[in-house]
Amino acid sequence: MRTSLFALAAAGLFATAVQAAPATYAIDPTHTFATFEIDHMGTTTNRARFDKKQGTVEFDREAKAGKVEVTLDMTSVNSGTPNFDKHLQSADIFNVAKFPTAKFVSDKFVFDGDKLKEVTGQLTLLDKTQPVTFKANKFNCYPSPMLQKREVCGGDFEATIDRTAFGVDYGVNFGASKQVRLVLQIEAVKQ
């Protein structure tokens, strides 16, 4: 009987440990959008997106911890204006011939109670890595009716960076803004 109780207790601990393990999610590119905005001489706002992106999310709901890795294909930048896209891809700005990808790797999920508040990590752009904190405007997990009730987690996140910290300084000398707003809307499917 003692052995049975020990085995039952061990099984319970093992089950708890398995449930507490982080789950892995693959980013759904059809429900994930990476965009940026930059002030254009105090008059308008230039916007563009990256059409190709991939990545993974690890999320441990019990521990309120996780990790995100998102890679952007910089050659897929799309402003809706082909000539502007060519300039964005040029050595003046993203230099995609030399640096075809950018990557964000998180190191911490910050919660306020049960609500995800922010995700901190490192952004690598033009082979320069800087810390970036994305504020969570929304975050939720749900059983997707389109994917046989598989769990999907995601949210809307934003950060503002100084682009010159990454060596993107085109136009600063004639008054173009250094500040760029990054917006990441991400959904990822549990694997």
TrEMBL record:
Gene3D superfamilies listed in its UniProt record: Lipid/polyisoprenoid-binding, YceI-like
Keyword Membrane found: no
InterPro entries: Lipid/polyisoprenoid-bd_YceI (IPR007372), TTHA0802/YceI-like_sf (IPR036761)
Keyword hit for Repeat: no
Residue stretches making up the Lipid/polyisoprenoid-binding YceI-like domain: 24-189
Cleaved signal peptide residues: 1-20
Pfam family, one: YceI
Keywords, alphabetical: Signal
PANTHER family: PERIPLASMIC PROTEIN, PROTEIN YCEI
Name of the molecule in the record: Polyisoprenoid-binding protein
